[in-house]
Amino acid sequence: MTEQGLAVITVVHGRHDHLRRQERSLLRGRRPDVRVVVAMDDADVADLVPGAEVVRLGRGTRGLPLAAARNAGADAALAAGARRLVFLDVDVLVDSETLAGYAAAEPDPLAVWCGPVTYLRPEDRPYDPATLPGLHAPHPARPDPGPGAVVGEDRWELFWSLSFALDAEGWRRSGGFDPSYEGYGGEDTDFGQRLAANGMRLRWNGSARGYHQWHPVDSPPLGHREDIVRNAGIFHDRWGWWPMTGWLEQLREMGAVEVVDGRWQVCR
Q1: pLDDT tens digits along 243-252
Q2: Where's the Galactosyltransferase C-terminal domain (predicted)?
Q3: How far apart are CA 241 and CA 106, in angstroms?
Q4: Using one digit for the tens of pLDDT, what is the confidence trace for 155-197?
Q5: Closest by alpha carbon to 117, among 97, 96, 100, 92?
Q6: Domains in the chain and their CATH numbers?
């Protein structure tokens, strides 16, 4: 890829400190040519990322419109002339080689590149972008090719939206994320299946490393059970299998959800 036309897209609702730290990490190494921040029901983002194009979306009728927000970010990046789109979750930091790793991959309209992501620990704070490579210890369930290596992947269920890239033509081929998913969960697993159905190829890019900032989490995410059950149902009706089964089973053990006539539903 030529040294132009690389966009970085981040979707945000709150997490302003995380966004600021992400932006600081992006100042090291290869810089994005186009920076897009999509603010979902968040009026206070504009001044956090100087020079970024800020796209504003309201809250959806059933939750935050994560899928629609990613589509809106891609639309804005393409309108600005981007030829390769890099999507970063707001919690993800990059090191000095991450964007260069995504940019260096040969143009391929059928490729989707995912970078290995390390989940940082509370004791890793405060985060120093210069020392992030020394913390590299990515999720053990996903491949971790070395720097400069790109490996193919057939298991599309491993696709995740924390850090990935694809060319503009590939984005158009994919059709984007399905905006019928609102709220928490399922939209990225669905996108992975859509990519596979459209003949795309999943690749792990060992140079495009990411580092997920620590924050408290609920496991399982009890407060999102309505979203999880609804979105899992949308996914099942389309693809014939249930996503997020780990969470669903944990929620069932808690008495929060149940299976009725072969379908998950929230207990009332």
Answers
A1: 999 999 999 9
A2: 158-203
A3: 34
A4: 999 998 999 999 999 999 999 999 999 998 999 999 999 999 9
A5: 92
A6: 6-212 (3.90.550.10), 222-266 (no CATH)
Q: What is the pLDDT of residues 109-153, one digit of tens each?
A: 999 999 999 999 999 999 998 999 999 999 888 999 999 999 999
